[in-house]
Amino acid sequence: MSVKNNSNKCMYCGACVGVCPVSAIVLKDTRIFIDEKKCISCGACVKICPVGAMKL
Amino acid sequence: MAEKIIYDAIIVGAGPSGLAAGIELASGKANVLILDRKQEIGCPKRCAEGLSNRWFEIMKLKPTPEWAVQEIKGAVLYGPNGKQVKMKDKKILGYVLERKMFEKNLAIQAVKLGAKILLKHQVVEAKRENGVVRLKVEVNDEIKEFSTKLVLACDGIDSLVARMLGLNTKNNLNDTDSGYQYEMTGISGYDENCLHLFFGTEVAPRGYVWIFPKRDNTANVGIGIGAYVSAQTKITAKEYLDRWIASQPGLKDGSIIEVNAGGIPVGGFLEKMTADNLLVAGDAGHMVDPIHGGGIGIAMEGGRLSAEVALKAIKANKFTDDFLSTYTGDWFKLRGNELKRRLKSRHLLEQLTDDDFNYLAESLTMDEALKIGNGTMNKAELAILFTKKLVQRPGLVKIMMKYLQEGKSSSQI
């Protein structure tokens, strides 16, 4: 299971990318891409997200 | 499509750090390219836009009304009990910027000196090949290739370029703040010549709410809180800020003209800031003040320093980690050690209860508060602090003792 990004809430600020311990998240322009194979569901991105756009 | 040219340096990220590095490199006649994944320089900001005079001096910047939009002459701190401590000077202590204009001006300066800038260029791969770095860059639907002797990773908290080249720049949650901000207009009830900072566990746990005025009843109204606290309370930075604004008569009916968010690397300094063909600066290099979370000036200073090291490397034609590694020590000597002392002070602040905070706000002088923050109190000053002020609150004595012992035992890089 991988974390999911809610693009309606997302502010594409990149905070999630900065704290991801396995570099599973990439921010391109206004979109977040999550590599489901790399994601270890640790929840760091959920905790840092200022707007609650990441959900496990 | 691959360019044949091999750049002396490619800077990834056209923010304050990357542009300061670009200006320095281009001044030194290096062949430098600046790439940014965004479509506009300076936008969207992840920043409250305050810059104090000290940085204007350090970076030799002359404020112009075009981007230094609000003169700041002081600050007002609001304790958890609502008590205000106002410090205001007659002279200008700094400015609130319009970052978009500020950074465009830096970009123009860099290009005038000979740098080249490309936007909407997203680096997707970085690999070393025969002593040169090959970057694969996504541009619209195409992949372009660029080659360079050196990469300066100035690509923000979401830096991946340094990671692609084997340098760990990841942020620890405990040392990262969650930030959220509105630029609001049609607001009132605050002194436009002061920064306003609001503290308290209800308002902003392990952090603060700010109003940074930008003239004409307009201001950045934002919040930065510890990411782990937000996770514990299950309240996001946005929710804390919305709740607080709704309680403020001068703000609640204002209009929002911009929304910003961002993670803030407030500590967790990198022990290593170089690798073969690589230097890292700015937010990507965790160059942020651990107490107030500001980083424009620090990032610019770090960017310029990285460029100075890069120029030496270009001159010597040596791009190994071994040659570049002096940069880490140079950075700590120049600014990093000061930030480390301030990180310890932040850890002290984090242990204070709202009651402690109220007590200190009423009993400490500004000079004492600043010296504790900077970790520069001498023995005589500490003695007065303990015997006259902290003695009335044993809890505070305990926290302060622990802080002083940590200060003694920790070694500096």
Describe the structure.
The complex is a heterodimer of chains A (56) and B (413). Chain A is an alpha+beta fold and 56 residues long. Chain A has helices at residues 15-19, 44-48; strands at 4-5, 25-28, 31-34, 54-55. Chain A has a single domain (4-55), classed as 2-Layer Sandwich (Alpha-Beta Plaits), CATH 3.30.70.20. Chain A has 2 helices and 4 strands; from the N terminus they run βαββαβ. Chain A has a two-stranded antiparallel ribbon with strand order 1-4. Chain A has a two-stranded antiparallel ribbon with strand order 2-3. The radius of gyration of chain A is 10 Å and the shape is globular. With 413 residues, chain B is α/β, with parallel strands linked by helices. Chain B has 13 helices and 18 strands. In chain B, strands 1, 2, 8, 9, 10, 11, 17 and 18 form an 8-stranded mixed β-sheet that branches. In chain B, strands 6-5-13-14-15-12-16 form a 7-stranded mixed β-sheet. Chain B starts with a strand and ends with a helix. The chains are: A alpha+beta (56), B alpha/beta (413).
